C-alpha cells in the first residue's frame, strides 16, 4: 500500500487499496474493528520482501483477528508508517510484541530495521496464496506452461518455523 487507489480488478471492486504492496478487496475499517472480527479478505502482494514464498502480484486469502503462531505469515501495520500495511513472517514472540522477518533477506524492511512489532499492529494471518496466470496473450501460452501454473496456482501458506531464527 503506497497510498489509496480506487477501481476494479477482475470485476471485483477495490474499495480500499492498502498494504505496502497489498490492496484489499472489500471494506476494512482502520485498525481496531478489523482486528476484532475474524473476517476473510483478499489482498495483493507488491514488492519482493517475501520471495520465494510470495511474489509480486500474488493474491492472498487472509483472516483478520486470527491467532498468530511463530512461523505464520502475517499482515501488519508498519510501526513507523501506520497507514502502510506489510506482509512478513512472525518469527517469535518477544516482550512487547512480535519479531518479524521477510523471507527475502536482501529486501530488508523487517524487525532488523524497526525492532519488535507491538501485538496490536499484527492484524491478520495469511491462509492461502493464489498466483494469477502470467499476463501473456492467450495464443502464446503453452500447454506445459498452463499445466505448471495450474499445479502451483493455489497453495496454503504454511508455517516454516523450523528454518527461522530471530537475529
The chain-level mean pLDDT equals 75
H/E element sequence: EEEHEEEEEHEHE
Multimeric organization: single chain
The beta-strand count equals 10
Radius of gyration: 16 Å
Strand percent estimate: 25-35%
Number of helices: 3
Explain this structure to me?
Strands 3, 4, 5, 6, 7, 8, 9 and 10 form an 8-stranded antiparallel beta sheet that branches. Strands 1-2 form a two-stranded antiparallel ribbon. The chain is elongated. Residues 1-36 and 161-167 have low confidence and may be disordered. The chain is 11% helix and 31% strand. The protein is built from 3 helices and 10 strands. By secondary structure, it is mainly beta. It starts with 6 loop residues before the first strand and ends in an 11-residue tail after the last strand. The chain has helices at 32-36, 111-114, 143-152, and strands at 7-9, 12-14, 24-25, 40-44, 59-64, 73-77, 85-94, 97-101, 122-130, 154-156.
Features:
167 residues, mainly beta, eight-stranded antiparallel beta sheet, two-stranded antiparallel sheet, 3 helices, 10 strands, elongated, disordered N terminus
What is the compact description of this entry?
The protein is mainly beta and about 170 residues long. The protein is built from 3 helices and 10 strands; from the N terminus they run βββαβββββαβαβ. The chain starts with 6 loop residues before the first strand and ends in an 11-residue tail after the last strand.
